[in-house]
């Protein structure tokens, strides 16, 4: 698929989504959001794609929503742009395959929010994270006030949002925002290695793990555990479960079929 502001490539089961507006540090305007929406809808329904890696071209992952565009909006238009972005983040969060953010540089405001909508975040040592919206007189509007506290706790989320402080990749890892920090030149290889690790596992199990974790996070513990039982049962009745357990007993590699 061809886009103006993003690149979408597919190789060996991995879809690569690269934000490609380097002159504006890959800022998210309404056109970029709409392209991301189309790209992720396509990825969601394309069976050959098993995992996704999102990254940015140039020195930024995404430096936030496009401030030049936002500065010209009135309240209603601002609300529409927030809702458009929130929907894209929800789509990324809930597509039926894992999404890895390979954060190569600035992940600020909407950029940090997009990274948080991904399943896991790998960061280059050069990456910087932050929610600097209060500097502009706004608050995070692509889910940041909700996903950040869920990832790093309420106190740290308030610290970052109130201060607008930018933190290093290492600090982001220490607070649990990032799972792995690697030298810049190893970022894509590490993300791909993790994608291949995931693709070697039972596909139904990976799908159900994602669904159980995502939906469970929106429920109280008892409802979440009940939800887990249903998701677990879907894996238990799969032929991959039979194969996985048989392979263990027979001391051989499992051959999963995704059924
Ligand atoms: N939007 C538009 N353009 C941007 C953005 C942005 N978020 N960030 C950088 N750019 C542009 C700059 O204007 C500049 O363009 P030009 O060369 O034409 O002047 C170019 O990218 C390079 O930027 P800098 O010259 O500023 O580069 P520096 O290395 O000096 O600084 C920074 C890099 C620190 C990343 C700096 O650019 C910066 O602070 N950017 C803004 C970061 C920010 O505040 N992000 C949060 C935005 S708000 C948001 O994301 C809210 C999400 C919810 C929105 C709801 C919709 C209504």
Question: What is the CATH T-level topology of the largest domain?
Answer: 2-enoyl-CoA Hydratase, Chain A, domain 1
Strand content: 15-25%
What order do the strands of the largest sheet run in, or round the barrel if closed? 1-2-3-5-7-10
CATH architecture of the largest domain: Alpha-Beta Complex
Largest sheet: 6 strands, mixed
> Using DSSP, what is the number of strands?
10
Q: How many domains is the backbone divided into?
A: 2
Name of the CATH first level of the largest domain: Alpha Beta
Low-confidence stretches: none
What does the radius of gyration come to? 19 Å
In whole angstroms, the N-to-C terminal distance is 28 Å
Tell me roughly what share of residues is in helical segments.
40-55%
Assigned CATH superfamily of the largest domain: 2-enoyl-CoA Hydratase, Chain A, domain 1
Number of helices: 11
Order of helices and strands: EEHEEHHEEHEEHHEHEHHHH
Based on secondary structure, the structural category is: alpha/beta
EC number: 4.2.1.150
Family: Belongs to the enoyl-CoA hydratase/isomerase family.
GO molecular function: 3-hydroxyacyl-CoA dehydratase activity
Catalytic activity: a short-chain (3S)-3-hydroxyacyl-CoA = a short-chain (2E)-enoyl-CoA + H2O
Topology summary:
Blueprint: E1 6-11, E2 14-19, H1 30-45, E3 51-56, E4 60-62, H2 67-70, H3 75-94, E5 99-103, E6 106-108, H4 110-117, E7 120-124, E8 128-130, H5 144-152, H6 154-163, E9 167-168, H7 169-174, E10 180-182, H8 187-199, H9 203-217, H10 221-236, H11 239-249
Parallel strand pairs: 2-3, 3-5, 4-6, 5-7, 6-8, 7-10
Antiparallel strand pairs: 1-2, 8-9
Helix pairs in contact: 1-3, 3-4, 4-5, 5-6, 9-10
The structure holds octanoyl-coenzyme A.
Subunit structure: Homotetramer.
Keywords: Lyase
Protein name: short-chain-enoyl-CoA hydratase
